[in-house]
Amino acid sequence: MRNCSSRSLELLTLLQAGRKWSAEELSSRLEVAERTVRRDIARLRSLGYDIRSAPGPGGAYRLVPSVRIPPLLLTAEEVSALVAGLLILETGAQDAAVVSARSKLEQLLPSTLRRRAVATALATEVVAPSSDTVDWTLLGDVADAVENGNHLRFSYTDRHGRVSTRRVEPFRHVLRGGVWYLVCYDRDRSNWRMFRFDRIHDAASCGVPFGYTSPEFPSTSIQEWLATDFGRLDSDKRR
Q1: The HTH deoR-type domain covers which part of the protein (predicted)?
Q2: For each of the chain's 239 residues, which pLDDT tens digit applies?
């Protein structure tokens, strides 16, 4: 079951859509009882969110934009850069996380910058978007693992449909040709590898062996590593 904080955040996301929601609708979307919805709304109100409700058993809730939420301190150029960057990450399938992030960004901006954000979105068309929806949970897990020095274990399906279990030390996640990859050190194969995000399943943190020493990445950059056939061409030159 989701904790109170994550459920409240999901409730706030629904209310920020700009429409009215009945307690029954919110209960169904959040998969909790209506009394839990009312408690969560009371909690959001205590935090300063102006949530209005119509009287009666079928009364609907709506979030009123509040001046008490401070606007983001961004320039017009920074807003254009953020919106364009989010549009590049959106996929043809409409990536829900990216669409939601852009919507929240627009709502937090003062009116003049909100107009710039909307204008940038309307004027921008990405001809070659990412080919697959990104697993943002996995991307976040990889980022946390890199930051904290943790290792990951996951099932991987290769292009021939063969499934294997991998234990790796994550190094970077890379967007290349519209596809996200994990660059990592494969502990069991003692080599650096690159795995497609959309073929990784059941990723979980796993222990770091006692006395383990992180290997040094074999190239000065990911770009050089890829350009030299994962370092193999560069290695041949040195022989």
Answers
A1: 4-59
A2: 456 666 887 888 888 777 889 989 999 999 999 899 989 898 888 777 788 888 766 678 988 876 455 455 678 888 899 988 888 887 655 678 888 888 888 888 878 888 888 888 888 777 766 666 778 888 888 988 888 889 999 999 999 999 999 999 999 988 888 788 999 999 999 999 999 999 999 999 888 888 888 899 999 999 999 888 876 655 444 43
| DSSP conformation class of 235 | H
In this structure, the strands spanning 60-64 and 21-22 are antiparallel
Class of domain 4-64: mainly alpha
* 52 SS3 class: strand
Residue 52 backbone phi and psi in degrees, to 5: -95, 150
Write the DSSP string, 122-179: HH---SS-BSS---HHHHHHHHHHHHHT-EEEEEEE-TTS-EEEEEEEEEEEEEETTE
Residue with tokens 């590898």: 193
Q: What is the DSSP letter of 198?
A: G
Handedness of CA 30, 32, 37, 39 (dihedral sign): negative
pTM of full prediction above 0.70: no
Give alpha helix (H) positions in the chain. Answer: 4-15, 23-30, 34-46, 76-89, 96-108, 111-123, 136-148, 222-227, 232-238
**Domain spans of the chain?**
4-64, 76-123, 136-238
Query: What's 136-238's CATH class?
Result: mainly beta
